[in-house]
User: What shape does this take?
Amino acid sequence: MIETGSEAPGAPSAGTSREAAIPVLLLHGATSLHDIWSPLLPLFSATQPVIAMPLPGHLEGEPVALDRPVTIERLADDIIAIMARQGVYCAHVVGNSLGGWLALELARKGFAASVTAFSPAGSWPDERAFLRIARAMVFACRVFPLLRPLMTPLMRLTAVRKLLFSSQMKYGERVSVAEAQRMLLGVCHCPVIPPLIASFGNGGGLKPMPPLDIPVHIVWSGEDRVLPREVFMPPMQQALPWAAYSILEDAGHVPMYDQPDAMVAIIERSIAMATAD
Assistant: This one.
């Protein structure tokens, strides 16, 4: 868990502004880790509390019991419980990929003061599109632990980092050696992914949601190769036709290293809309 900002996160209290009291909660994608938000953290206002949390069932995240079905709703409930133990009962929720889907579910559950979702998962046009993504994720979780001893030293080569992350981001060479090795470690420690994927295949995609009284901004990366916007954004728009949509140009599916300044500007606009009198 990474926490920044001079204000302690938590619920609004007497004598504090809503903007100062409500933190930004950053949720990463499947097989990723909370470090992925590092390029954004120095760009937020020093007075804005920011929490980058590891998702349950991921590296450094709280364990998830696998003796019962793992669903997106259950993960959202787990996040709410984790935040409650830290005294946080509301947040401006920002998510990428799986984290974007979770951000929307947290809004459905009344936890979010605003939502900014970057290339959120949860919508697919047909079973074929779903299976392509699902098989790739399960394959990575099974194969990367076997290849890690070979791949870890290769991360020292800029060309290798750029190639390895080419499907995720446009400028993979911006990832440092240490960050790349951490990312690889993260892929190797995601026990929650196979059962979560199984729940998606049982009709567990994003369910339509009625209009909410909070800002919900869905931002698709212009060069997303994992969830190409021409395929995956239309069904999202059908499920949430009332949300705001925009395109983040010159960025891949995981855009934190591609466009950190633009991402923070978008997030701050959502916060400003939520806190406007």
User: Anything to note?
Assistant: DSSP finds nine helices and seven strands in the chain. The beta strands are 2-4, 24-27, 50-53, 91-96, 112-118, 216-221, 244-248.
